[in-house]
Amino acid sequence: MKILYGMQQPDEGTITVNGERIAFHTPADAIARGIGMVHQHFMLADNLTVLENVVLGAEKLYGIGAKARTKIKEISDAYGLNVRPDVLMEELGVADRQRVEILKVLYRGAKILILDEPTAVLVPQEVDALFDNLRELKAEGLTVIFISHKLGEVLSVADEITVIRRGTTVGTVEPGSTTSKQLAELMVGSELPTPETEESTVTDVPLLKVEGLHLSQTDLDGIERIILDEISFTIHKGEVLGIAGVEGNGQSELVEAIMGIRNPDAGVISLDDTDISHAPTRRRREAGVGYIPEDRHRHGLLLEAPLWENRILGHVTERPNSRGGLLDLKAARADTERIISAYDVRTPGIEVTAGSLSGGNQQKLIVGREMSHRPKLLIAAHPTRGVDVGAQAAIWDHIREARREGLAVLLISADLDELIGLSDTLRVMYRGRLVADADPATITPEELGSAMTGAATGHLEHAEDDDR
Amino acid sequence: MKKLTSRIDKERLLLGIAAPLLALVAAIVVTTVVILATGKNPGDAFSDMLTYGTASDSQVYILNKATTYYLAGVAVAIGFRMNLFNIGVDGQYRLAAFFAAVLGGALTVPGWIAVPLMIICAMGVGAVWAGIAGILKVTRGVSEVISTIMLNSIATAIIAYLLQPGKLAELQSGGTVVSTKPLPQDSWFFSFDTGAAGVLWGFIVIAVIVGVAYWFVLGRTRFGFDLRTVGQSETAAAASGVSVKRMIATSMVISGAVAGLIGMPTLLNDSHQFSNDFPSGIGFTGIAIALLGRNSPIGIALGALLWGFLERTTNHLEFQGYDKEILGVIQGVIVLCVVIAYEVVRRYGLKRQQQRVGAELAAQAAARTEKQEVA
């Protein structure tokens, strides 16, 4: 994908566009050939309008004034994107931003669109809208490359599916003649993993109690913004509490408050009946809180350090990493070898840098590291994001296994199937509050989705008897 | 598997050496061009530098110089490992040396008590001066680059004010030099007499100890691990439980304490007093040397020796009719090339490692499927 967009050079092989063999050296070459990419992480300036964001870097095409505006309207109408050019970017939601990204690419004359995990941040309703847009694009003669880990989506939107596993093409199938089970088997190379937990292991021993947690932040304009409000919940031993919600509704801040990276304004967090509301992060970790951060590159790894140093990270005060004030390099290295084999981290050795591993293997290393210290509470934020299906199944297994032994888990995920499958209890977070709860045994992703957009609150009941 | 690990290591080592070597070669080429441009023969200049620089009296001179430079390099490198740019090493060591000299002149205790007292005083003053910048950074978010530059100027002003007859200094017998009260001979640091080659400063022992301590603390202790973590990724450090703010303040203080030692070889082994002509600007030399040595204890030592060698030999070139500005050109080019070469080599190394890991895994996967097929 990076090669297609000219960000990396291939060692071998050819790329043919419209019957013509070509080599891309920079993204500019790719754009000139009509290839456009919509990144997983949006690249938009919040303080500019939609129009300004679209023309930024492409001023030469249609100028920056009326002509550009007409062109944007034209594209927007042609493909049913529904973009308003003069709205400030910061006022737009995730789905709108994504449409702006698509428009940006079309504005530059792209005929081939690459979408990298476009649905990761969307709720089911928004996904449907996106698919309508994509069908529109297709109808107008454009080519779309849709990259996703979610099989159902690929099956519903694609005309042809190519499965890539560990860097090689393992198969190309027609969505009409295949099921998602067959597709998944192609992806994993073995039978299908499901996130379903079998029997309930929930005990009545509360482990983590959060009461009335409140966090607000004063932004640059001096306006106080409430990020977390009246957050209260209890996780028992052996329980997985899942929190659903569209990203940016306070989930990250909640995790950071529990980890001690942010200091809450009010409220009590207690672990095993000990008040840890204002304890430093290291003490919480030593007390048995494991942490799988949502952004492993920024919070979970030292990308330029070897694997064994990454194994020490976060647990430098604990054995086998150190004795007294001194590091025990030998023991840490040996334990890294153990994690690598026990958690199937695919790497040629422990001296390579963490940055050279694939995302799934990085994540398995993190999971292995956190599990190796026998946590009482695991905070897992998007534990399988950007991870291949094989690694995903392995990570789910590890969480389930530890849960059986009495681990309490706070699970935050954008993958609703994962949430429903793993959780014992589900809560929905919207604008910094826990607005709804649901029973994972009966709820469907669509029903959760409506609560995530603030449309439903309270206890969510499945199907017709939902009269709230 | 083992084989690949060792191969990557060997490669990393090679790449590590490649960068400074590349920089040196580039510097030699540029210097050659510059000397040619002035209409002189570069070959003669280089051979003169080599023969003169390796003479035994030059060796002693270079070691003495390198002692000071090494301490400066380590002081700066401590900050660098944390992503802190301690430009204030210069002011820290001058202020430290000044107060240590004042203390040493005033003390009337035996040398074995006075010398440690002066060293502790110097480290304390350096630590306090750097600590101001550290505290400003963690409490008010002031960039340490700005605050340490300004603290350098303030240090200069304080020394100028106090270094007057009637304040903390006195007029020397010649009547032209103002300095602090000279240290009694008993309070001089020991030195090695090498006969005709000159006197080797005993402070080189302290420099070696500082180097070993630097290596040990950074590589073998929890504290050092925390420090390196913050340097590599503040966000990951915070998530792993390091108090980033406390770490910034602490490392600034340690950097300042080591900076306080920089003036000590000169004060205790050579000048024995702090006067107007006390060497200045070594803090900036330290930045160049830390860059050159890539913050590694051995690299910094090599950098310090190279710097001493260049100074010694280009001084001599001046007597051979070459322009003395050659020194500045060589040093400047080396630093510039080193910074570029390290970045180029680092990126190349990371990319190469990624490719190798990918290739190795693909090979493993292929081998595995083959085995399955056979079975």
Task: Give a structural overview.
- The complex is a heterodimer of chains A (468) and B (375).
- Chain A has helices at 27-32, 50-55, 59-62, 66-78, 94-107, 124-139, 151-157, 180-188, 251-259, 281-286, 296-300, 307-312, 329-342, 359-371, 389-404, 416-422, 445-452; strands at residues 15-17, 20-22, 35-38, 112-116, 143-147, 161-165, 168-173, 206-218, 224-236, 240-244, 266-271, 274-275, 289-292, 322-323, 326-327, 377-381, 408-412, 425-430, 433-438, 458-460.
- Chain A is α/β, with parallel strands linked by helices and 468 residues long.
- Chain A folds into two domains: 15-147, Rossmann fold (3-Layer(aba) Sandwich), CATH 3.40.50; 206-465, 3-Layer(aba) Sandwich (Rossmann fold).
- In chain A, the strands form six sheets. Chain A has a seven-stranded mixed beta sheet, with helices on both faces. A four-stranded antiparallel beta sheet of chain A has the order 9-8-11-12, covered by helices on one side.
- Chain B has 375 residues and is mainly α.
- Chain B has two domains: 1-38 and 326-375; 57-322, ABC transporter involved in vitamin B12 uptake, BtuC (Orthogonal Bundle).
- Chain B contains 14 helices and four strands.
- The longest helix of chain B has 49 residues, at 326-374.
- The two termini of chain B are 23 Å apart.
- The mean pLDDT of chain B is 84.
- The A-B interface holds A 11, 166-168, 259-261, 280-285, 291, 293, 298-305, 309, 312-317, 322, 325-327, 329, 346-353, 355-357 and B 1-2, 4-5, 8-9, 219-226, 228-229, 232-233, 235-236, 238-243, 350, 353-358, 360-362, 364-365.
- Chain A: One of its GO terms (molecular function) is ATP hydrolysis activity.
What is this entry, summarized?
Chain A is built from 17 helices and 20 strands. Chain A has 468 residues and is an alpha/beta fold.
